[in-house]
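Retry 2 of 3 after timeout on previous attempt. Resubmitting structure tokens to design endpoint.
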């Protein structure tokens, strides 16, 4: 997630671009820049920091003047937030300037080829490869040059491009990232979302994958990637600014739930080679180092801790390395047995959570190698750990985490496979089978979304509950803890998760007629056990909502209601099982008229102990 705006018209582009970027700042805010066609040259100004920092840099320095320009606000993926990594990026000849959202998956291969040809790169970004390829493919025809370049890219992108030879034209293209072309009386715009241009127009063409637009001052032509013209329908949006920021959704939480297929894909795909194996070349752990670890410690807070609990099952099952999981706030005070034979993994969306940061420091002090799984590039935890694997979820605005949790699961699965290959616990062909299944997860999550209406109706029946209990065993129990947190933090209904086998050791006394229980039955191996537990609870008057894998009729036979999730490998089931639970929490909170995105007493980033 980053923000793109472009303008081609009759007005001064710089203030329009800066105002548009300000509206897009929620999509990314670590650096920003603009490129304006000014006196036969493309003038680029960019700055680390917020749009305000860019404004000040422009105000204090040179103000580009022109009526054609592109702008970008960045959420770092490849490379730290910095002036050099900010967009737009020039091509080597400075003939082209590019802004980009998304991830170019084959950027490393393309970069290597370009380096061999003598290209010099000034940033660590994947985007600069696109700029250099435009020079490499330059045939004197702007559109053909862009089309050839697109044909060499894999991954996701929304691109805006300027060319020095074309003072009247900008080109944009998209694949798997949102982009639109908007029409106003003073000219045409490109934008990653309508928020950027709502002050000027509500008329837009929504671009589809593999479409290219040549945008003039008063003309717009659309093409497919073969360069054939295509027709498109002008649409008019009725959203206000707040709805537009949320992509038309009423809350960021539901928008972010719906973004999970893309977030999972972005986190997974770039780490898979063409021959289907895992490549974590962002970390420096060798096979020997992995084999040298006697134990893995995972620490995190809240949902990040819950990811650690899932990962324990996955790593121990696949790699056969012992795993301990701690709440970061407990780990730092428990005199942990950690040394140079331990790998400590810190999981954190923000990378700034005080307890997780201190746990990381404690582990380092004790001699452990550290690896962090973080969403915010350049954050303290990412910077201080020996290795970092980023979850490319994009900015998460809602306090209740959804897409960050899901991408953390993916990274931990990839790590488990990497460890298992190093220890020899998993053969390359078995690893390839798991990876092939992982590739299908985004599509399966989309399939779960088809039941959104049904889940919303179930959530309505939760509206007046005082308590809810989630039960499951093993990996289902770990998911239950997150499901319970999702419900309670946004709807304020008291809820707890229990390991199914523990019920008889005390908790079952809480059950009375009408008590709501959610039975997580994704774990194929233990589904019968959980079903038996659910039966025991129903016998005491509980209402049971079952979460089961498609085709499992046992759960249907006992539960009042069942939400089915698609089948996948047992170790991957949490990635699917959590999705209806997030929807359940969300719609229950909506039905109870709670402040979904900013639940009372909570903050997105907990930077104090
Ligand atoms: O930024 P972090 O991942 O380190 O935050 C940790 C927890 O505060 C966080 O996961 C919290 O539990 C979630 N916002 C709950 O949805």
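Retry 2 succeeded. Sequence:
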């Amino acid at each position: 997630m980053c923000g793109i705006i472009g303008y081609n018209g009759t007005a001064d582009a710089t203030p329009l671009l800066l105002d548009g970027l300000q509206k897009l700042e929620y999509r990314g805010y670590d650096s920003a820049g603009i490129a304006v066609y000014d006196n036969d040259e493309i003038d680029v100004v960019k700055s680390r920091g917020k749009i305000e920092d860019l404004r000040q840099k422009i105000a204090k320095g040179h103000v580009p003047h022109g009526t054609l320009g592109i702008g970008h606000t960045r959420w770092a993926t490849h490379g730290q937030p910095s002036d050099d990594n900010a967009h737009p990026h020039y091509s080597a000849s400075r003939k082209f300037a590019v802004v980009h959202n998304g991830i170019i998956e084959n950027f490393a291969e393309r970069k290597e080829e370009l380096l061999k040809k003598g290209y010099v790169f000034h940033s660590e970004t994947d985007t600069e490869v696109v700029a250099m390829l435009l020079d490499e493919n330059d045939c004197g025809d702007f559109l053909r040059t862009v089309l050839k370049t697109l044909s060499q890219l894999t991954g996701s992108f929304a691109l805006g491009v300027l060319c020095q030879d074309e003072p009247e034209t900008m080109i944009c293209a998209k694949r798997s990232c949102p982009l639109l072309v908007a029409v106003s009386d003073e000219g045409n715009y490109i934008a990653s979302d309508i928020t950027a241009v709502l002050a000027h127009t509500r008329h837009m063409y929504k671009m589809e994958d593999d479409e290219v637009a040549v945008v003039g001052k008063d003309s717009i032509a659309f093409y497919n990637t073969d360069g054939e013209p295509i027709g498109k329908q002008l649409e008019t949006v009725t959203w206000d600014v707040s709805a537009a920021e949320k992509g038309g959704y009423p809350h960021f939480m539901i928008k972010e739930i719906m973004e999970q297929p893309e977030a999972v894909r972005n986190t997974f795909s770039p780490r898979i080679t063409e021959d289907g194996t895992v490549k974590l070349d962002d970390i420096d752990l060798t096979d020997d180092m992995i084999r040298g670890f006697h134990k893995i410690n995972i620490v995190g807070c809240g949902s990040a801790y819950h990811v650690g609990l899932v990962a324990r099952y996955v790593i121990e099952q696949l790699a056969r390395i012992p795993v301990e999981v701690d709440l970061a706030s407990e780990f730092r005070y428990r005199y942990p047995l950690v040394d140079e034979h331990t790998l400590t993994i810190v999981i954190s969306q923000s990378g700034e959570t005080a307890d997780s940061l201190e746990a990381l420091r404690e582990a380092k002090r004790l001699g452990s190698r550290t690896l962090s799984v973080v969403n915010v590039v350049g954050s303290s935890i990412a910077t201080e750990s020996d290795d970092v694997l980023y979850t490319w979820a994009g900015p998460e605005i809602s306090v209740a985490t959804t897409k960050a949790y899901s991408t953390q699961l993916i990274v931990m699965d990839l790590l488990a496979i990497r460890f298992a290959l190093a220890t020899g616990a998993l053969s390359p062909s078995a690893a390839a089978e798991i990876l092939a299944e992982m590739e299908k997860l985004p599509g399966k999550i989309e399939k779960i979304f088809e039941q959104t209406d049904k889940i919303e109706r179930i959530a309505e029946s939760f509206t007046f509950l005082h308590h809810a209990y989630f039960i499951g065993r093993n990996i289902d129990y770990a998911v239950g803890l997150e499901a319970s947190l999702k419900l309670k933090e946004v709807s304020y209904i008291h809820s707890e998760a229990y390991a199914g086998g523990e019920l008889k050791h005390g908790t079952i006394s809480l059950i009375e007629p009408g008590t709501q229980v959610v039975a997580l039955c994704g774990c194929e191996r233990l589904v019968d056990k959980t079903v038996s537990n659910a039966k025991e609870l129903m016998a005491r008057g509980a209402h049971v909502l079952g979460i089961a894998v498609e085709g499992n009729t046992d759960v249907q036979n006992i539960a009042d209601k069942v939400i089915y999730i698609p089948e996948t490998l047992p170790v991957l089931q949490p990635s699917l099982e959590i999705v209806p639970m997030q929807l359940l929490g969300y719609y229950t909170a909506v039905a109870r008229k709670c402040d979904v995105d900013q639940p009372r007493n909570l903050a997105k980033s907990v930077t104090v102990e």
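Attempt log closed. The longest strand covers residues 31-38.
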